[in-house]
Every structure is written in C-alpha cells, then in structure tokens.
Amino acid sequence: MNRRGALPRLIGAALATLPGLAAAHAFGERYDLPAPLSYFIAGATAVVALSLVAAALIARADRTRSGAHSFVIALPLQPALLAATRACGLLLFILTLVAGLAGTRNAESNLAPTLVWIIWWVGLSLAIACVGNLWPAFDPWRTLFDLADALARRCGRRRGLALDWRYPPALGAWPATLLLLAFSWFELIDLNAAMPSHIAAVGLAWTPVTLAGMLLFGRDVWQRNADVFAVYFATLGRFGPLAARDGSLALRPWGRGLTAGEELPAGMVGFVIAMLSTVLFDGLLGGEVWWSVQRALARSLAPWADDGGYLTGSIGLALVWLIFLAAYLLSCEITRRLVGGRALATIARLYVLTLVPIAVAYLIAHNFANLLVQGQLLIALISDPFGRHWNLFGTAGFEPDIGIIDARLTWYVAIGAIVTGHVISVWLAHRIALREYGSPRQAVIASLPLTVLMVLYTAISLSVIAEPLVQFRDIDGTAVVAPAR
C-alpha cells in the first residue's frame, strides 16, 4: 500500500505525466550520506541541547507580556489594497470550486489540487510563518460574511447579522483542534484527497458551517476559537515579524508574537500539538516503522480492517497526536514538580506556543521539495485550469523542471530547518521561563524538561525524514539500502 498523503500522490501523478524526465528525478535515487545517520542525529541533538546553555548565558529577563521591542510602521493598511486581496481570495475560492466540480477528474491536469494542497496549504502557510498572518486578507469565508453583514446593515439592521451568542469558554479552541485532526485525516488518509471533486465538496461543506458559526457567535469570536483555518494561520503568523495593529503594521523580531503572554483559550495546547503531530505522521506514513505498525494493527483488527487503510490510518493519526500530547504534558508536569508555583494546565499553556517554530520547521522539512517541484505546475495550470486543453496565457505547454532539487539538497534543508526550529523553540521557552520565574537558575531548571523533549523530537523527526531520502551507512562504511516500497 502506497503512502497516503495527498501531496505525495499528487506529485507522483504529475511526475508520471512527464515522459523521459521521471527517471532522472533525484528522488529516484537515495542520497548517500557521507557519515552514518546516527552521527547526524547525534550532532543535531547536541546542538539543540547546547542551545539551552547558550540561552542561559545570553538571554536576559523580559518582564513584558505585550508586543515589546516592536514598532508600528508608518504605513497604514490601505483600504483599496485590502479590498483587492479579499476579492482575489474570493475569486480563487470560486475558481477552485468550479475547477473541482466542472473540471477534469485528473488531479495533475486540474487546478484545484495544486492550488489547495501546494499553493494554499503549504505555500501560504510558509509565507505566513515568514512574514505574518496574511490569511484574514484572503479568507473567502470572512469576505462572504462581511459582504452579507454589510448588506444587512445597509438594509437597516444596525447590529449586522451576528447574533452574538455567548461562546462557551470551556470549548475554547477544542473545535478547531478536532477539525484540524479531521482535515489532516482528509489530507493524509483519504485516498480521494487529491480528487478535484472531493476538494470542492469539502470546501462547500465547510462554507455553511463556518458562516453559521460567525452568524451565531460573531465573526471574531468564531475565528479566534473554532475556525480551524483562521486559528491555524493565526498561530503560524505569531512567528512572523509583521502583525496588524490598529490599522497599521507592527514590526517585531521573529518569534516575538509567541512570547506575548496573553491568555490562550482552552484547547490551544491540543491544537499546537496537532500542528506538530500531523506533519510528523505524514512522514511516518512513508517509513518502515509505520508499515510494521500498520501490519500489526491490521492483523489485530482483521474483522474491521479495510484494504484502504482507513481504520489503521485513523488510529495511527490519533495515537501519534495523543503520544505527542502526553509527552508534552509530562514535560510540563516535571517542570511543575521542579519549580512549583503553577498548575499543570497553566504551565502547558505558558510554553505551548514555543513549539510553533518546530511546526514551521516540520513544514519546511516535509514539503520543501513538493513546493518547489509541484508549485511549477501552476504555470501550466493557469492557462488550462479545468483540463479542457485551453491555453489562455500561452503557458499550457510548460513542463516543470523536476531536477531543480535533489535528495541531497532536500536532506540538508530538512536537517537545517529542524535543528533551527528546535533551537528557536528552546530560546523562546527559556525567555518565557526567565520572565515567569525571574531567577536565571530557576529558569534553567524550568527549561530542562522541555529541552529534553525537544532533543527527542529532533532525533525522531530526523529519523522519520531520513528514511525515504537517504542511503544509510553503518559505522564501518557499508552501505545499507532501505527496503523497497
């Protein structure tokens, strides 16, 4: 059974349409590491561990909980620019729906899969992490609600459409967490995730749900708590250097938004852990460990197991999330016992946003190659978005350069991203500990459990990423080729 991620299936289908080039693609071969994989993992984990030492020596306490060390750029957000971006987002959403419902069923010839899985889910996510939360300016569902709300006000309803029901505080971000797991299930496990009509169906199904939520609880309350995409992109955007503030842009150091210290809604711990675990599970789906686990699950669940792997995949996705969540809560419990003074839930919410750089790193490590290669298909698809043999802009015959990246570069980008992401997380966690506990000694003690967890995350993620990319060598230099899939 092949890997279930929508992106790998989509890129495989696209590359299969490029005769004469697929054999030359770098991923047809494995990169022969110049040293055993264990050396890379040992070096990477050592760097992450030593980053706490560096943070302890360099970092100084920052007692503020707001956007300190940021300044407002003297450039207001222009209404015309905002209107243009919102119109663009709505038009792209409509185009995706039309392509999914009326276009060809071939994923590689239809605009919808590439636009959704590559440009939006991967490309926009990385852009938001690097720049700031751009999603509100493009969010088509937000635009639809605002248009309807403005129309209602013009028709005499002064308060607009929103009924402003009280959102249950106990729910918090739990709806968004469960929806993120459900969306990840669709992306990674559903065999039809790359099918244009299924993508359009999901978009259509989400539209009345999210519009109803905005209607009942108000747009901002709904998007802050239950709108999975708004919460996801807003969380990534906290890492970026730009933030909207009172109609202007605030410039801040990367990661500053993750240490602001405001109270997070219930469920945000589970949400951030889901951001990490779902991307790592995507990598696990292509590895020998998962194949072994899946075979064991299939044998034990034989009466209920299916050939498509839906049951075993669903169990695996949930288990990985629960294991990550339990490991994080355990590290927070150890911190509580070492330094005391706060409840477990408080400590968990206090540090959870420092894991966001790791989620960004996982996004880069797992999807960098897909974005570069598959993203090129957009050049041809803009001329023939529905697979009707059009050539609107003269680019329909464009063939992607699949040699733009090889396994060697992908490996070094992955290891660099993962190490950097974990080091940034350690640094941010230590700054929070300094702010909360004051004493440098207490801050180091408080940071130790989470640093150990990040060291383990580093080793696991590198092992998962390495398996489909590299040819391993034993310490004696003998090449070890991984089993064929």
Secondary-structure element order, as H and E?
A: HEHEHHHHHHHHEEHHHHHHHHEE
How much of the polypeptide forms β-strand, as a percent range? under 5%
Radius of gyration, in angstroms, nearest whole number: 23 Å
Low-confidence stretches: 10-28, 472-485
Termini separation comes to 8 Å
Say how many strands there are. 6
Q: Which structural category do the helix and sheet elements fall into?
A: mainly alpha
Q: Which strand order spans the largest sheet, edge to edge or round the barrel?
A: 1-5-6
What is the secondary structure topology, with strand pairs?
Elements: H1 6-16, E1 31-32, H2 37-58, E2 71-73, H3 79-102, H4 111-130, H5 135-138, H6 140-154, H7 174-188, H8 196-217, H9 219-225, H10 228-237, E3 242-245, E4 248-251, H11 268-284, H12 288-300, H13 310-339, H14 344-351, H15 356-374, H16 377-381, H17 407-437, H18 440-466, E5 470-473, E6 479-480
Parallel strand pairs: 1-5
Antiparallel strand pairs: 2-4, 3-4, 5-6
Helix pairs in contact: 1-15, 2-17, 2-18, 3-4, 3-6, 3-8, 4-10, 4-15, 6-8, 7-10, 7-11, 8-9, 11-13, 11-15, 13-18, 15-17, 17-18
Structure explained in plain terms:
This protein has 485 residues and is mainly alpha-helical. It has one domain. The chain has helices spanning 6-16, 37-58, 79-102, 111-130, 135-138, 140-154, 174-188, 196-217, 219-225, 228-237, 268-284, 288-300, 310-339, 344-351, 356-374, 377-381, 407-437, 440-466, and strands at residues 31-32, 71-73, 242-245, 248-251, 470-473, 479-480. The strands form two sheets. A three-stranded mixed sheet has the order 1-5-6. A hairpin with a 2-residue loop joins strand 3 (242-245) and strand 4. Helix 3 (79-102) crosses helix 8 (196-217), helix 4 packs across helix 15 (356-374) and helix 8 crosses helix 9.
